[in-house]
């Protein structure tokens, strides 16, 4: 259930459903870190899509707090702009990967 609205996941918006799933993923990553003593490596495809600015900021803070390596993909580079000072950003096009 979506906490703020107390709605079943099926009744939530795409962004709310994604927030629920992302919360489960982050909780699992924290559990793995606590159990092993090592933060897991995360691969998050299109993670910033469908999130508003507030949710993206919260996500980025949580990911940094995990202390592990995180690979994120997305079609809109602007969604990752807040990470420019704390992450390595790359633009991948057919046959080429460049730092941005």
Rg from alpha-carbon coordinates: 15 Å
User: What is the helical fraction, as a range of percent?
Assistant: 25-40%
Quaternary status: single chain
Average of the residue pLDDT scores: 91
E-strand count: 4
- Structural category: alpha+beta
Strand content: 15-25%
Main beta sheet, described?
A: 2 strands, parallel
State the strand order across the main sheet.
Answer: 1-2
Order of helices and strands: HEHEEE
Task: Tell me the span between the first and last alpha carbons.
Answer: 38 Å
Total helical segments: 2
Description:
The protein has 100 residues and is an alpha+beta fold. The chain has a domain at 9-74. It is 37% helix and 16% strand. It contains 2 helices and 4 strands, in the order H-E-H-E-E-E. The chain has helices at 14-36, 53-66, and strands spanning 42-45, 70-73, 90-93, 96-99. Strands 1-2 form a two-stranded parallel ribbon. Helix 1 packs parallel to helix 2 (53-66). It starts with 13 loop residues before the first helix and ends with a strand. The mean pLDDT is 91.
């Amino acid at each position: 259930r979506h906490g703020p609205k107390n709605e079943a996941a099926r009744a939530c918006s795409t962004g709310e459903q994604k927030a629920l799933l992302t919360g489960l993923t982050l909780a699992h990553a924290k559990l793995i870190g606590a159990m092993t003593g090592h933060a897991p490596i995360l691969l998050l495809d299109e993670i910033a899509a469908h999130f508003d600015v507030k949710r993206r900021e919260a996500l980025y803070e949580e990911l940094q707090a995990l202390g592990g390596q995180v690979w994120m993909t997305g079609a809109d580079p602007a969604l990752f702009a807040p990470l420019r000072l704390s992450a390595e950003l790359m633009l991948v096009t057919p046959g080429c990967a460049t730092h941005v």
